[in-house]
Amino acid sequence: MDSGLLSSTFVDLADTMVADFDVIDFLHILTDRSVRLLPASAAGVLLTDPRGELRVAAASSDAAGMLELFQVHNDQGPCMDCLRTGQAVTAADLAGPDQRWPRFASAAVNAGFRTVQAVPMRLRDEVIGALNLFGAETAAFNPEDLRIGQALADVATIGLLQQRNRRTREQHAGQLQSAPNSRVIIEQAKGKLAERLSIDIDHAFKILRDYARNSNQRLTDVARNFVDSATADFPPPARHRRGRN
To answer: Structure pTM?
Structure first.
């Protein structure tokens, strides 16, 4: 476990809970860091919006996003059970016999995943979603990994509930509805910037996010403007590291 990354993740998640909260940025950090910190190949987030509708709010990969959609559409899978019960749910070997969720298990194995760990996003009796961790191997999460996964989900839950109290229900629902398209735009911008500056994807995302924050813009808007402009000369990293420490 990278203790430095773990500490910075909690700082980044808390830092996002400021005045002009960007839910897309927040959920992108949550899924990205969950994969980097835990024995997971991909991560996704299912959330109930303020109207009670269930949505795929974020995913670290297209495969994870499709599996989350599969669960919602088929009302079957560990993540759905986690949402219903408010308890962590483990699917240890999706290729094994006597599957509890046969259709989901088949879809997950075909997508390259053998295990799923779903942890609830809840505060007391209110369950607003689930953080879902997909693994390519059959090794189950150890207790320490599960505690960290739950801690990440807990911090995210507090941030989202705080945001719901701050904004109108319609505004928040609109952001969740746009989440899948926003994730695609952000991934495109990361790839374009990484190629242009000859840097890795993580570094490219940090530049985009820092620029969005320091210029008081939403991450999705910055990413879309950069992707749509064929000649955009994105500012170099050194110019956008002021502000938050």
So the answer is: 0.70
Cβ atoms of residues 34 and 9 within 8 Å: no
Q: Are strands 42-48 and 54-59 parallel, antiparallel or unpaired?
A: antiparallel
Residues 131 and 29 sit within 8 Å (Cβ to Cβ): no
Are 185 and 227 contacting, i.e. CB atoms less than 8 angstroms apart?
A: yes
For 30-77, what is each residue's pLDDT tens digit?
Answer: 999 999 999 999 999 999 876 778 889 889 988 999 999 999 999 999
Q: Which of 119, 107, 115, 141 is nearest to 46 (CA)?
A: 119
DSSP 49: -
**Number of other residues whose CB lies within 10 A of the CB of residue 110:** 11
- Name the DSSP letter for residue 113: -
Q: Tokens for 26, please give them.
A: 């927040």
Report how far residue 30's alpha carbon sits from residue 153's, in angstroms, rounded to the nearest whole number. Answer: 8
Domain boundaries of the chain, sorted by first residue: 3-167, 181-240
DSSP assigned state of 136: S
| Domain 3-167 annotated CATH 3.40.1160.10 | no
Element (H or E) spanning 117, and its range? strand 115-123
